[in-house]
Amino acid sequence: MSLLQVRDLATHFFTRDGVAKAVDGVSFTLDRGEILGLVGESGSGKSVTGFSLIGLVDPPGRVVSGKIVFDGTDLVAAGEPAWRTLRGKRIAMIFQDPMMTLNPVLRIDTQMVETVLAHADVSRAEALERARQALVRVGISAPDDRLKSYPHQFSGGMRQRVAIAIALLHEPDLIIADEPTTALDVTIQAQILSEVQRLCAETGMALIWITHDLAVVSGLADRLAVMYAGRIIEEGETARVIERPLHPYTKGLIESVPHGKKHREMLAQIKGMTPSLLNLPQGCKFRPRCPRADDACLEEPALAELAPGRRARCVHPHVEALQETLVS
Amino acid sequence: MTETILDIDAVSKRFVKELDIAERTARLLGSSVKEQTVHAVDEVSLSVAKGEVLGLVGESGCGKSTLGRMVAGLMRPSDGEIRFRGRNIGTLKGAEARDAALKIQMVFQDPMSSLNPRLRVDEIVGEAPRVHGIVPRREVTAYVDDLLERVGLDPSTRRRYPHQFSGGQRARIGIARALAVKPDFIVCDESVAALDVSIQAQILNLFMRLREQFDLTYLFISHDLGVVEHISDRIAVMYLGRLVELGDAEVVFSRPNHPYTQALVEEIPTFETKKKVYGAIKGEIPSPLDPPPGCHFHPRCPHAFERCRIERPLLKEVAPGRLSACHLNDEASRRGAA
After folding, report:
1. Cβ–Cβ of A257/B204 closer than 8 Å?
2. What pLDDT is stored for residue B44 in this prediction?
3. Which residue in chain A has the smallest CA separation from B261?
4. pLDDT tens-digit profile of A274-301?
5. Under CATH, domain B4-337 is a member of which superfamily?
6. What does the pLDDT average to over A148-159?
7. Which compartments does it reside in (chain B) (predicted)?
8. What residues have CB less than 8 Å from B217, skipping those under 6 apart?
9. Which of A194, A259, A269 lies nearest to residue B278, judging by beta carbons?
10. Which residues pair with A92 in a beta bridge?
11. What is the distance in angstroms between the Cα of A269 and the nearest Cα belonging to chain B?
């Protein structure tokens, strides 16, 4: 059975200006040891999906419907008490800004020991030893000195490693990583990616890597789910999504990345901009920006399985790509 | 492409943190506290040809933005000089200084903090050309409309405030403002870094189109190598305040010479769909307050040897038009000669 099953998840924000449907009908499954890349631009609902999975959506936001079945238990139905026992122990989250997870006025050892003791019945000395090992595991040298430091004494990359070490303390089954390398330099990002890759392989934990950067996850994730306006619009195995995207939005996203394109050539661009969540277009949400849109798109398509393991939410998908796959 | 428009000649910028009163007292009492100096930019020399796009890349703290700000005249170099069309912009006076300042404009990273939130778009874009008499007062309205259209904004939005626009549109306003004074040279400091991929592509295309239309020269500063590679003719790579490599964009990317550039190029995430094993160069970027001696990169360099720890490598020509600051090149040529 899959570790995580998300069914028709909807998280809405009840603001003064109206209801913002940040996540509206998201479904996916995740197996043990699998890495899922959740990709989208700002406002696509990718982070809110992540926050919903770990039960950290703040008012005015709320999970209004759907199921989050984690290891057999529906967390939406079970509510906050269930989340409390899981959060930090079996599901952990890594945030974009490590300063958000680390308390600036506490030493690293205090924070890590606290996390260990919250879920494990061990002595302080043992908790400290676990903290030390967690730091070693994420590649921090001189862990004993590092444990006695404050967060501001670390560099950005180092802080993110500490945040990852804290997430790993209880060897969770699932880690949700929300753009953890976006604020980091390229060389540091590569270091973090290589650590995460190694840790996933070693511990067999499942990972949801949320990012706006398709290129980052293309080398990391087993599967990709692309989000637009609160919905998953395409899902499939990483290599096949990148090489043969079905949805015009995915295709546009891939084509607008400059790297590897012909020098100085105009980039293919998606016209317009992401719609406001308060004022979504009728039918397919990508319709006003889509080169393939016509009247048929006025009715919203469902996320349909177009080939084994390939799902897309589109009236006019790039099926020709699919046929090529079948022939080859 | 041969005429040089901008010359950066051995420019350095140092920031000194002065001692506060407690530290000064401590020093009087015999403590060894010293003023801290950061060499943000350390003897960088570059020249930019007319019509060229020079990409400047490096990681945080490498001094690329400081260099850009000095070129745009927002900061003065501590040493060295910056010549625009052959004249040192630091020593120009009066009208000449003003003209030089107008000819070099800057487009910033975060359009929200570089646009005045209390001014309407037509004031933001139209103020400078009106004040400097670039267009007659009566024609300012038409001039602004024309500019807005050229950067892809609807002129009917001219009475709106910056917060009523999306991120990509704000970036367009920042570009229109820079273009309004008819510059020859634009410093783009991480101008597309804050934008979503689909919007970033739109703005990059806009930069390329405007360059043709207005015959512009760009200094394009970014940490994103993919973006820089795409838009630049030549690329300069900086590390901890020093220029480590310079050359044609395609060559720098296909055959990087300096080990740091090699590592950077290696680490760019690409659409390689087979599971990429991220190799990662070891270690962190050292603090610019206390850079390592010799070659700044030696503690992280896989090829470092004795000489790298002692002697600073100079920027040398390794191929026509191609500069690199690495002792390995000397070793290679010595071996070649022997």
Report:
1. no
2. 92
3. A187
4. 888 888 888 899 999 998 989 999 988 9
5. P-loop containing nucleotide triphosphate hydrolases (3.40.50.300)
6. 86
7. Cell inner membrane
8. B5, B6, B48, B49, B50, B51, B52, B53, B184, B185, B186
9. A194
10. A175
11. 6
